[in-house]
Amino acid sequence: MDKEKLLRSIPSVDKILFFLKKEERLLEHGNIRTTSVIRSTLAEVREKIERGKITATPTMKQISDLVIDTIETENENSLKTVINLTGTVLHTNLGRAVLPDIAIQNLASLGAGTNNLEYELIDGKRGDRDIHMETLITELTGAESATVVNNNAAAVLLCLNTFAQGKEVCISRGELVEIGGSFRIPEVMEKSGSTLREVGTTNRTHLRDYEAAITENTGLLMKTHTSNYKIQGFTHEVEHHELSNLSAKTKIPLFSDLGSGTLVDMEKFDLPHETTVQELIESGTDLISFSGDKLLGGPQAGIIVGKKNLISRIKENPLRRALRVDKLTITALRAVLQLYLHPEQLTLNLPTLAHLSRKKEEIFSVGQEILPELKNKLSSIASIDLLAVKSQIGSGALPLDQLDSFAISIRPVDQLDSTLQELSKKFRMLPNPVAGRVTDGKLLFDLRTLDKASLFLEAISDLHIR
Ligand SMILES: *Cc1c(COP(=O)(O)O)cnc(C)c1O
Question: Quick check: 400 pLDDT over 80?
Fold first, then answer.
């Protein structure tokens, strides 16, 4: 049959809709979704005919099946829980921090009704949404004042815009970071309306470099946590307390983008030291921003703490309205911050710290529970072992530090990369997907972040090999 004839034989959208209705397959997915998928499916069929890939008219049944398959696959792959066994505890692509139970309870109960988000219960007047978090944050950090926005990128943008629009920001060349997902300090600065004034060199920056860079048009002195890299060797960095002296002398505020930002001393959990928010406040830093969903272990948010007069200028910036957090973020963040009032219980109650501080013996025993069932399923095509590996914290926290852990290692007996890729896809495409990492011809499932063996065993009950 010639192409023209084939193209003319394609049924119309309405006819397919009618067919699906008759077959009682329309109701479940709704008209809007179905119509749009019929259109895209027909476009694909047309294209295949034009490229000579289809040489006979597809039947109404074939097209309809294709439409329903597409809808179901798209539904299936949309936002859902994934078991993160990549070895990166705070994985940005996998939604970063796992929320604690108490935050989940708060989300469910607050989301189900209306609330006093901006409403003073005492006098029935309009209130400020920050009050639900500000006292907690200032108590925990020692800061005078605080506000919360959508994420740390927004927090940085807001601080720069409030204090340095039309002005210069002095920052060390060694701190012009790029965080994954296109957050780059120089670009954010440009969007904030401020001008970057690079100070010092990549490896060495001195106080005199900042002093020489300051003019009457300097709006901010800035430091950034070099979250995802470390400059080593012949280096010099100006510490916060030195810059805060310069800031006091010149009356130019000192702003620090702390990135991950933690409220507890990580060494208490046998983790490497990470500068805490409290330490920066004590160093005299005027303004500090950090993420809610990195080391803090909460929902996505950007927290800004600092001097009262500076925070109140931020609160007056109209841009803050565009970057504000919603009630769900606030209630989840409140729950997480409250856990920090009992720091000794954090490794029990806060999943992020529980995972980071987990002992390798415990991780090993989870592995031993999983091993037999996995061997049972996969031994015909792969060799399965329990391997000592290193996990990482992720999200730019403590970039060079790696934690001792154990992983299930799956190595295809045919040693083919294609088999390995196929296997890891099978795990990713499970109804409850499992994400691992592929290295050196092996698929690794790092068990640091697997709370219970049963979660994994349930997920793989849907795994079928040939
Ligand atoms: C992660 C990070 C950011 C961005 O924070 P988000 O919460 O992801 O918006 C900004 N600055 C630094 C130094 C970071 O590590």
Answer: no
